[in-house]
Design goal:
By secondary structure, the chain is α/β, with parallel strands linked by helices. The protein has four helices and five strands, in the order βββαβαβαα.
């Protein structure tokens, strides 16, 4: 089975999750932060290091389409980020519908009694984990 990296790409953060070697479960890894939205060099370098560390073969990138299925600015920025990832890593990057993921991630953290300021630190990781789990469920049938 191949290792898959799940990413939740935001304007200042990228939440990262990875699946186990059997492709059954997803675990949170970290949140990569950057000072400015378009300063992506260090973010991409960190993702490359994680790909190497976890022996990643495929990347699943959360794709924030609008509720009416249209492509907004955030989704377009995600497509540009996908193109950068493909160029730098030479790996397949799958865009995965993530429309309700951040809301779901927040609800999970609230249910678990995580305080608001602590939720901010991990919400992107939880979103990445949900994106990856959703993808894994779809390929397991």
């Amino acid at each position: 089975m191949m290792r898959i990296l799940g990413l939740d790409y935001g304007s200042k953060t990228v939440g990262v999750a990875v699946c186990d070697p059997l492709g059954l479960t997803a675990q949170r890894v970290e949140t990569i932060t950057r000072r400015e939205e378009n300063k992506l060099r260090r973010t991409l370098a960190r993702i490359e290091a994680l790909i190497s560390e976890y022996e990643i073969e495929t990347i699943v990138l959360g794709y924030p389409k609008n509720m009416d299925d249209s492509i907004g600015e955030r989704a377009r920025k995600t497509e540009i980020f996908r193109d950068m990832l493909v160029r730098r890593t030479k790996l397949p990057v799958i865009l995965w519908d993530e429309r309700l993921t951040t809301i779901e991630a927040n609800e999970i953290l609230i249910q678990n009694g995580i305080r608001r300021e602590d939720r901010k630190k991990v919400i992107d990781q939880v979103a990445a984990k949900l994106i990856l789990e959703s993808y894994l469920n779809s390929i397991q049938g």
